[in-house]
Amino acid sequence: MASMMVNSHYTVPSIKGFDDIQNHVGVRPASTSTSTSTMRFNAAKGLRQRPFVVRASESRDGHVNKMGMSVAECEAAVVAGNVPEAPPLPPTTAVPTGTLVIQPLQLNRRTRRNRKSIALRESFQEANLSPANFIYPLFIHEGEEDTPIGAMPGCYRLGWRHGLVEEVRKARDVGVNNIMLFPKVPDTLKSPTGDEAYNDNGLVPRAIRLLKDKYPDLVIYTDVALGPYSSDGHDGIVREDGAIMNDETVHQLCKQAVSQARAGADVVSPSDMMDGRVGAIRSALDAGGFQHVSIMSYTAKYASSFYGPFREALDSSPRFVDKRTCQMNPANCREALVEVKPGLPYLDVVRLLKDKFHLPIAAYQVSGEYSTIKAGGLLKMIDEEKVMMESLICLRRTGADIIVTYFALAAARRLCGEKN
């Protein structure tokens, strides 16, 4: 019958009815008067069988300080019964003067126990954040210089030959290996039908080929939409009466996606919100031999006011009408049938998609969210770095597997312990 005998050196606290017993510390045969507590326990069946013996003595003689001893010497001392003393209990912390002395609450659960130290908090943390979770959106233009974007402090339109390559290098150095490209297209190349979107020698295809040559394992996401290429500033072709032409736009988007895949894009991301465009793009990619290219659909792109800084960055604001006939009503979520844009204002939609579909879920922390946090930091109203990290972990906790964020580089540096 399997059984267990445990000898343990310990200090017995003052117990009512045993106030005359002092210094209960030794675990060894006693040469003086002793108090012995005996219990039996069978490890296999829980039956009481063999004695568990604790002997208390008044002397601490014979205890060995482990300091300066080898592991073998310490083990030999313990076997001989010379057990090292346990560290003292932590001192009682003084409470503020005037604090009432009360009986402790009879609580079955005290969850603050699991939050009392950094190590405990980290061990129970449910959602974790890693640079691998980020997609870094980057604005590019035809110029050589990097030009700041007024509404997005810290963000630039990068020169595609040099600034882009350098920014990607910085991101990769801290573990961010996913980027998304957004072009600032010269007005002279824009047209009502956005034909420049599928020019194989256009800005985006050139940038993709350059980056793939420099960093072959870089994961490149591209934006599939006519907005940056449209003289009307819309993601689709606009009729004279202001209506967005759905099917004709989808035809253009398919050609754009194939052009980007041909240049080396890993993931194409239709953000236009046209009906039927994901299936059509998949068919076009497969027919072109690009079965390996993935699609990250903007499943829920809301007609949000948080896009303002982004439109400044690309100079792509609509000339007339608005985008509410294409983008979702902010009051709705059941339209969303796997990217959600914006992110923080629509956390409920991220959770809904996560619960409903066994697919990777992406959330786009858009320019307005970024600029709000940056402005609060610049005005010293908030701790920018802490709010940045809190906003990102919120998106992860809600269900986002990947996060498109302009904070990707700064957050990755923070996670890697670097100073921004």
Largest sheet: 11 strands, mixed
Helix content: 25-40%
Tertiary shape: elongated
Contiguous helical run count = 11
In whole angstroms, the N-to-C terminal distance is: 63 Å
Provide the residue-averaged pLDDT: 81
Can you walk through the features of this model?
The protein is built from 11 helices and 15 strands. The chain is α/β, with parallel strands linked by helices and 420 residues long. Strands 3, 4, 5, 6, 7, 10, 11, 12, 13, 14 and 15 form an 11-stranded mixed beta sheet that branches. Strands 1-2 form a two-stranded antiparallel ribbon. It has a two-stranded antiparallel ribbon with strand order 8-9. The N terminus is likely disordered.
Summarize the entry for a quick read.
The chain has helices spanning 71-79, 118-123, 163-173, 203-214, 246-263, 277-287, 308-314, 347-356, 367-378, 384-398, 408-415; strands at 36-40, 51-55, 134-141, 147-148, 156-159, 178-183, 219-224, 237-238, 244-245, 267-270, 294-295, 300-301, 339-341, 362-365, 402-405. With 420 residues, it is α/β, with parallel strands linked by helices.
